[in-house]
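Appendix B. One record, verbatim.
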Amino acid sequence: MTTVLTPPRRRARTARTAGRRRPTLLTGALTLLVLLLALLGPLVAPHSPTAQLAAPFQQPDGRFVLGTDVLGRDVASRVLGGGRTIVLTALAGTAGAGAVGMTAGVLAAMVSRRLGDLTVRCVDALAVLPALLVVLVLAAGFPGSDAALVTAVALATAPFSTRVLRAAADTVLHSGYVEAALARGDTRRAVLRHDVLPNIAGPALMDTALRLVASLHLTATAGFLGLGRGGAAPDWGRMVSENVPGATLAAAPFLAPALLLVLLSVCVGLLAGRLADTVGKGAA
């Protein structure tokens, strides 16, 4: 029977890798748990999230496990129903920003330098405006519209994606194998399909994760300011602003949604940072 011995360096490297994976797995599990709570919570809410069922700021009991809010609505039902809008709006805004950034960034890299710079300058005009101002203007112009909020989030975050993806595509286009492909007669469409897009997939995924963090922050802030869907609809951000005045009477109505927002943002941010490290090491 042959015993295979692992070299000390390899064992140390394996131990470090396992040590890094455990926090990442825990972070991923927490993120998945909060996302499932946000997306599936309305299906298991024990009461209507908009119905006034008891006195305001009633303490938790057998009927209301988290008590009631400022208007006497069940806090647990509103927590279960208040995350779906935030998560879906952030995901839709991130997808919109990614589509704009990918299209504008790759086109700016593949056309002439002058036209590419002009394209980026046009997109940069949006970056001059504060992100919250873009959200406020569009949400105020179309009150109660989730589509307007999604558009605002996408427009506020798209300029940064455009710059990142243009730089990534430009690096690929100036590589030796792309120049060789063009020299042997490959069309620019073939180069885009077979060389550019596969090689910027990593940076695009990393940028999407970072944009998702920004989108979550903007969406939660919009809810805190009372923008987007009507005031009766549950929203974690709006729940915080509504129930802060009664914090001395009951902590759960504002603390539960606040903790979920913080947990989701922190976990997604940690996963984005981990992804950035992985992509950076792969590129190196």
